[in-house]
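Fold it.
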Amino acid sequence: MITKNIFKIHILFYIIGFICFLTGNFKNFIIFSSIIIIHELGHIIGALIFKWKIDKIILLPFGGITIFKENIDKSLKEEFIIAILGPLFQITFYLLYKNNQIFNYYNIAILLFNLLPIYPLDGSKIFNILFNLFFPYKLSHILSIVLSFVFIILLIIYKIDLSLILIFIIVELFKEILKHKYYFNKFLLERYLNKFNFKKHKVIKNLKSMKKQTMHIFKINNKFYTEKEIIKELFDK
């Protein structure tokens, strides 16, 4: 679902566009930007198919960000499809415009970079979905952050010149770290307020072991409690 006033253009987009205009690279800037729009269109169409609410679509000079206004515990299958549709749209346009060398050069560069497991790139979202298949939600988020730092360090070690992009990514990654506790509390609150009917059930001992798409029974001191009982006690405190 798309609401009004969700499209935002970052100030850097205007600055880089103006610099490209002055230096005679405006055509390349337009091609680069069109690929970003094509990529985000894939995410938007995926969101419309699954009726996800889109909060913001932010256009940057080196990428785009589509932010959703949904529960954290959404279907992992839906998350994966929405995440992968961006790269798939790029691949489709690559196959359609094989003879356009400039378009394909930028298309492949954006595609490969975006698949790196670095937050907030799609590669990180895909890895986070895979982590959530095997690990608790809280641990999966931590692993995604750690993996992001590992690949940032590798880019720096191999002296890949992405200075402006890396600065932006590092800032966004630190924002994500600061929101870690908020995300987990939101995850718990959503589980308490909403009635989920997950097929998978698991017995656990503490809140940190809670997984997405799983209904939990808590075993504490040889007694069994429901999710809502334990989470209610937490929020009552």
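Strands lie at 7-9, 54-60, 63-68, 201-204, 215-220, 223-226.
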